[in-house]
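PTS system lactose-specific EIIA component, pasting as requested.
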Amino acid sequence: MTKEEASMIGFEIVAYSGDARSKLLLAVEKAKQKEFGECDKLIAEANECLNDAHKSQTELLQMEARGEHIDIGFITVHAQDHLMTTILLKDIINNLLDIYR
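Structure tokens follow.
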């Protein structure tokens, strides 16, 4: 896999996890306003985005596991970092939402 191809998958991961991050932060705002139905909907949408990001990530992992060479660049590293921090944010927000409820 070329660096450009890996970067495109990286961009997918960044986009999906970025969408998830936005939805998670909006869910907190909805919880502050006691709009828990909308909050739950946003959390579910964020989880779907994270699932899509994981699918893209898994594609890279499977290629490497098969022994294929993947030329990793900064965009791919950034994508992994972005996904990891969004997953951490999800965990923190889920605990925060328990307090709001």
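Note for the archive: Residues 3-32 form the longest helix (30 residues).
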